């Protein structure tokens, strides 16, 4: 009996229009081309319609207005802004204010969230209940109401400058209803060397910790890196600072008349928004941390304890590294929400990007489309940057399959 060779079963090839219609690959490409074409058509139609309507109303189109003088003051900014500066500089003032507010809030919310999340799993009943109430109350209260509460209920009711609260009993670190007054650094010529030493120290500390981790994985011997890390991150910049003649002066706030002069200060509105952002988002971060820790198999803790590891080492070296695989993905959304929710600062008058550019500048110049587009581009860029960076870290800590 004649044997026929086995061959892969393939559908008979059809030619012409029937083959194109029946082939799933061609249909998929065709549908994608059609959808992309409709999207491009919709975008160009929207742009053309907007330009036509604006031309009919004799409204100017373009970004030439950014060169014009803004002509208004801004209550607070770390930049050297003057009312004679352009709208483009106003845009950067708003960007810097927003990034400063969001950046500090992200760091503090993450740290507080980790602390509260670990407290929720504590064996002490009182500590666990306090953390639980913290999460449930703050997470179920609107952020805007919390911002208004902190502003009107706390910082607006602080004493006047002459009755200022001296923090830690220090007369140049005071808090009153005008804001928080702190010493202001004045950078001199060679201070950049200290900054460079700080960057080198961070790189050196990362190398030291990586080397210690590799040694521990290969030999099982634990090497403490606390002192070398402190020496690299803080000792090297301090030594550079001293050797370059301490190129940094300080301006201290002093009470003169009815207000403080000199130094730097932070608006009560910024403090209120920052506190609200931190406590609100830390409640969500705490739940992410708690869920991440609980996702780690209990056997990991028992195995680590059987090896004689102390509780703090178990949490730091065994539980947290594995829990980060479950914590990081939702943390990406949390960080992006902090940046976007910082726009609610407009409710109490903090001069963020939305306030100084999309409100005041828009009302004066009338270029609504351009201004809104620039603000949207900023928030989109920041959100995509945060997402990209944390996705790289998330990919690094995931279990690599072979």
Task: Please describe what this structure looks like.
By secondary structure, the protein is α+β, with helices and mostly antiparallel strands. The chain has a domain at 87-157 and 269-397: MetI-like fold (Orthogonal Bundle), CATH 1.10.3720.10. The protein has twelve helices and eight strands. The chain has a four-stranded antiparallel sheet with strand order 1-2-3-8. Strands 4-5 form a two-stranded antiparallel sheet. Strand 1 (165-166) and strand 2 form a beta hairpin. Helix 8 (268-294) crosses helix 10 and helix 11 packs antiparallel against helix 12 (368-397). The protein is globular, with a radius of gyration of 29 Å.
Which structural traits does this protein have?
402 residues, alpha+beta, MetI-like fold, 4-stranded antiparallel sheet, 8 strands, 64% helix
């Amino acid at each position: 009996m004649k044997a026929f060779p086995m061959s892969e079963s393939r559908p008979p090839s059809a030619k012409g229009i029937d083959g194109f219609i029946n082939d799933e690959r061609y249909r998929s490409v065709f549908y994608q081309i059609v959808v992309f074409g409709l999207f491009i058509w919709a975008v160009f139609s929207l742009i053309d319609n907007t330009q036509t309507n604006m031309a009919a109303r004799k409204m100017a189109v373009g970004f030439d207005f950014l060169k014009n003088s803004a002509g208004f003051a801004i209550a607070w900014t770390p930049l050297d802004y003057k009312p004679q500066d352009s709208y483009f500089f106003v845009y950067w003032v708003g960007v810097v204010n927003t990034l400063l507010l969001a950046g500090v809030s992200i760091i503090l919310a993450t740290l507080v969230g980790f602390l509260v999340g670990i407290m929720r799993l504590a064996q002490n009943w009182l500590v666990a209940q306090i953390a639980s109430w913290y999460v449930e109350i703050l997470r179920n209260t609107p952020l805007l109401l919390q911002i208004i509460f902190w502003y009107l209920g706390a910082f607006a009711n602080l004493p006047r400058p002459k009755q200022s609260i001296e923090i830690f009993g220090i007369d140049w670190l005071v808090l009153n209803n005008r804001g928080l007054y702190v010493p202001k650094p004045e950078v001199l010529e060679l201070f950049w060397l200290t900054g460079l030493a700080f960057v080198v120290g961070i790189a050196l500390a990362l190398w030291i910790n990586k080397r210690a981790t590799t040694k521990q994985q290969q030999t099982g011997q634990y090497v403490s890196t606390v002192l070398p890390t402190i020496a690299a991150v803080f000792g090297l910049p301090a030594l550079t600072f001293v050797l370059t003649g301490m190129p940094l002066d300080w301006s201290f706030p002093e009470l003169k008349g009815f207000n403080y002069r000199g130094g730097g200060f932070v608006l009560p509105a910024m403090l209120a928004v920052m506190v609200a952002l931190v406590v609100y988002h830390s409640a969500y971060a705490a739940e992410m941390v708690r869920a991440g820790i609980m996702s780690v198999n209990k056997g990991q803790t028992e195995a680590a304890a059987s090896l004689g590891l102390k509780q703090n080492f178990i949490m730091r070296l065994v539980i947290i590294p594995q829990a980060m695989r479950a914590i990081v993905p939702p943390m990406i959304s949390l960080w992006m929400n902090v940046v976007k929710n910082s726009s609610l600062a407009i409710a109490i008058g903090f001069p963020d990007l939305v306030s100084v550019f999309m409100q005041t500048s828009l009302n004066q110049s009338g270029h609504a489309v351009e201004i809104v587009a620039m603000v949207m581009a900023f928030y989109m860029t920041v959100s995509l940057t945060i997402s990209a960076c944390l996705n790289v870290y998330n990919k690094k800590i995931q279990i690599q399959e072979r």
